Amino acid sequence: QLQLVESGGGLVPPGGSLRLSCAASGFTGRYYAIGWFRQAPGKEREGVSCISSIADGTNYADSVKGRFTIYRDNAKNTVYLQMNSLKPEDTAVYYCAAHSRVQSVCYITPESYNYWGQGTQVTVSS
Predict the structure, then answer these.
(1) Nearest-CA neighbor of 83 among 71, 97, 67, 72?
(2) How far apart are the C-alpha atoms of 8 and 23, rounded to whole Å?
(3) CA Rg, the chain, in Å?
(4) Which of 24, 25, 26 is nearest to 34 (CA)?
(5) Measured between alpha carbons, how far is 29 from 39 in angstroms, rounded to an integer?
(6) What is the pLDDT of residues 34-79, one digit of tens each?
(7) CA 33 to chain CA centroid, nearest Å
C-alpha cells in the first residue's frame, strides 16, 4: 500500500518561500501521480498542483500559477512543491495524494486520487 508523508510546512512572512515534500513508500508499482491539495479553515479542499505518473506532465490552479512549481526526484521517491511569493491566502493545511494509473496528464481534483497523506500546515503571516 502506498504511503505518503508530507513535510516542509511552517510559518513564513508574505512574499516568502517554502518547499513542501511528499515522500512515497510502500509502493510496488513503477509509476504514480501526485497531487497537492490544500484546505483552509471553513473552506473546501482545493486542488493546487499535480504531476503525472509518466512524462512528468504538470497542472496548476490559476491561483498559484507562476508562483508554485511541482517536480519529482525519482531516486528519492519524493515530489516537491516549491512555493514562492507566498500570500496570506495561501495559508492552509497542504496534503499530497497519489494514484497509480499510468497517464501523461494529471488532474487536480480530489476524486482522482486514492492515497492521501496526513497534511502539513502552511501559515503565511507577518
Answers:
(1) 67
(2) 11
(3) 14
(4) 24
(5) 29
(6) 999 999 999 999 999 999 999 999 999 999 999 999 999 999 999 9
(7) 10
